[in-house]
Hints:
The chain is an all-alpha fold. It has helices spanning 2-21, 57-68, 72-82, 88-98, 105-114, 119-134, 138-144, 154-166, 173-185, 191-202, 208-220, 224-232, 239-247, 249-254, 262-278, 280-291, 297-313, 319-323, 334-347, 350-358, 369-381, 385-399, 407-415, 431-438, 441-451, 455-468, 476-488, 492-499, 508-511, 517-526, 531-541, 562-572, 585-602, 607-616, 619-624, 632-637, 642-663, 669-673; strands spanning 630-631, 675-676.
Amino acid sequence: MRVLKILTPLRALAAGALCALAPALPVLAQPAPANAQPAMPATPQAQVGVAPQAVPDSVILDMREAFRRNDRARLAALLPLAQGHALEPWAAYWELKARLEDATLADVQAFVARYPGTYQEDRLRNDWLLLTGKRRDWASFVPELPRFRMGDDPQVRCYAVAADVANGKAPTRDAVQQVRRDWFAQRDLDDGCLLAAGLLHQAGAMPFTDLWMRARLATEANRPSLARAAVALDAPDVAADVASLQQNPARYLASRAAVGTRKGQELIVLALIKLATQNPDMAAQQLDGKWSVQLTAEERNWLWGVIGKWSALNLSDLAPSYFAKVTRDADLPDDQLAWKVRAALRQGDWRTVLRSIDAMADPAADEGAWVYWKARAQLALARSDADRAAARAGFDKLAANPGRLGFYEKLAREELGQLSTTPAGPAPLSAQEKEWARRHIGLNRALLAIALGLRSEGTREWNYWTNLHQSGGMNDRELYAAADFACQRQVWDRCINASERTKGFMDFSQRFPMPLRDGVVGQSRSIGLDPAYVYGLIRQESRFVMDARSGVGASGLMQVMPATARWTARKIGLQGFRPEQINEQQTNLLLGTNYLKLALDDFQGSMPLAAAGYNAGPGRPRNWRNGPVLEGAIWAENVPFNETRDYVKKVLSNTTDYAVMLTGKPQSLKARLGQVGPLAVGQTDPSADLP
Length: 691
């Protein structure tokens, strides 16, 4: 019931806006606001024939459910009833998407003609390109490709290269590199990039080493089907060997006395990679004792990099010694070099930190991490004013970003003696800019979809208009107006999403909204918890989506798991708690804040450890804290789980920003990170049963 109370006003606002706009569709282009840089484009036209309220929302909701069930007959029957609804483009998309395999080109062209310029038109074009690529129907694929505005589908990009090769065009160097990047970045096997890689290999544009490199990456990522497919492009005769080494690498290695051939050598490398993911120390023994002399220097270096990485993921003290066996850092990909840096940070080995970052192909790719740690290494190793100036340049580079004040930007500023404060905001939005956003059909349609409970559809449509409809996405002033539009309607996740994309400035109140302020602050302070910490965590957990649900069953503002809710309710003496209450706003806040406080107490007040425990469960950070006493930033950078590592950084960074807003005083991220290390001798965790 609480969710309905929250959503109903939003639905009325969004539907009302679309209704008001319907009669004026031919003249929606707005004059450029005087202070917009550059001028705002015309508002997109809508394909809505009559006022939105003429069609019941239940028709759209029924069609969405029929689409989920792939009930083509039901979709066809309901589609005529959806005509005139503001979300009609979605209804028509679901109906055609469900039967796209059997659709004709005329069907697609009719859809495109009815809904030109919409997200749904371009998404259907994406689907059509994938289908025609899968069919190798290049005559249909090639003419439609230039009209694909989003251009965000790696498989479509791969099909585009495959189409050129199939049509006799020589692949360019850029095309080969694009396929390589897209193929190497895949988590799962797909047809497009595998096809393109195979055609490029046959054309002599992609060497066999790239195919086996893809197999290495897939093997380490536990994607056996992708590894087998990559190897099959070069050596289909060894498919059985690839399957065997994936299932039991130790047994496979024991059954081989020598590599014999190039393919045999590559298979040994794959087996050692697989073994390293299971037992890096055993893999090290195998490489040192039997296989090292039979492999090339590049293969040995790669394997030591993999072994070092998986040892570092286990927070083993042996990781630096494994990385030390690498004779050429340039043979390692950036992912392995990143873990070499992390292992060196744990040891305080600044010289290795510096050398490893310098060997990276793109050290600026990880949101400023390696720019910051390189500057820290330069500062630690500095012997002159020139050395210290070089370090300062790295901090200056991060600190000078006006549109971003994330984890490493804050740390860089503190190195320069600057605590976190409220940044100067942009010029206020003009009435014209606000009106432009208010009359934007795509943004309105996105908010209406969200209001009706179609959050996935609404989010995708919103992201299309802000990020993808035009090259580079909306400009800063457009994003600022879009964020304001979402904020005014209390769709906080879209407000934050649009606001975070501005590069030249930031509006602090947009990026860090504080809905439910009295409840969050009052509840937090009543149990001795910093409300800034609670806000920082909520922003990362749910972005203030009241009815948020995670894939693992967490619910509500604070994404509380059912088992955690039951345990916390018992712990705080909440009588008569029922599982469905977890979705009630006040109960969710009560349980989430109390669990966070218990976790914080369990970790002796360490915000990084408590945040990690909230995300990954308390048992893992209890183990991760063992080892040397580390500054909080180094500990956070060494968290083995990618999701939790990112989570801890963002929660602590958010907390610092919210503290600035709540107190009005400069704040330190470093102070919140503190130091992390093992429990003192004789000390125990106060909440051993903390789930």
